[in-house]
Design goal:
410 residues; alpha+beta; 15 helices; elongated
Length: 410
Amino acid sequence: MARRAWGEGSVFFDKVNQRWTWRGTYLINGIKTPKTLTAKRQIDLKEKVEKFKFDVNQGVFDSANITVADWIKKYLILFVQPTVRPSTFNTYTEKLNFVVRAFGERKLKTLTPMELQNFFNSLAIDGGAKRQGLSPTSVNTIRRYFKAACQAAVKNHLLTDNPVDGTKALRTKKPVIIVADEDEVLRLLEVAKDGSYIYEGVKNKNYITENEGTKYYKQCFFNVVNLDLATGLRSSELFGLRWQNINWAKGYIDLKEQLLIINGKYTFCELKTDKSKRKIYLSEKVIVELRRWKIYQNFYAEMLGDKFENIHNLIFTNTFGGFVNVQNFKRRYYFKMLSAAGIQKGFNIHSMRHTHATLLLKHGVKPNVVADRLGHSNATVTLNIYAHVLENMEDTAPNTWQDILKGENL
């Protein structure tokens, strides 16, 4: 049997199996471990060997008994981080941390489909920081990300089979989209502008005091609601807006980035998709309100002096010029607005985006125009999300057709 050196290891043709074969070794924790690769053609075998050696140098094979935590860390760094946006990488990390907390010290190859299914099921019951249970959609995302991580382990010979393959995704329900009608929108804007909602639930009015910070928040958050209802911006887009994003002369927002919290820090990131980079035209009334808000913000900044530092030139800030804590905004202001305006429960911040789209479609704005305003990839996405609007509009079709033919003698 002829042998020939091929780097570290040897290559020969196995006449019994009629295959080219390479045998060599690689280090695992300082210990030499044998490895055999085969292929029908010598050129294919060489490619396999070169890829194997590259993977060894990248540290993929540094442990035959790698733990779940160690593999996920390597997977994120080697396979995910170079291929996705920072915001997406942050999502991968957050989701896979659920797996790390549950199985981090376990050897990756010891995981079984049955225990993983139990794990996914339990996340829907008591997963989350407050053990409130995760939505089926969130659980399925965790499952999908871990399945991809295990599949990468299979391809890199750390697993023979993917244990997630033996599990089932949780059943999901189509999310209920809650929107406000025209009257509710007007009522919400009236309440937000009046500002008295801030004292909703206060029993003893003698304890009510209003300072400039309170006045600032009232005007700030009216414009938050007014602008979001008028544009359908995502929350990350809305609170990441800077004054330079507004083209005053032509009356539009030039949206280029979003604001996310990554590793506990506020970070300006690329938008969700390329289509999310867009120009959103504003009505004259919205422009007027934004001009008033800018004037007041400048006045307030001068009044506070060095205490107000809006270094990012944000449109919406806290009372010291920093980023708005969205959770605090919802708890202390937004939910009170909804209560005072009599808006149904479940109308969250994202519902303002849904309301914007729904009312435009209802009043005859073309789906492709709505899709462009929302930053959807195409009108089909928009129609799939807001199909209920079209179903309701179907009731008006016969009368509309009758109006079209009015006066015709048929």
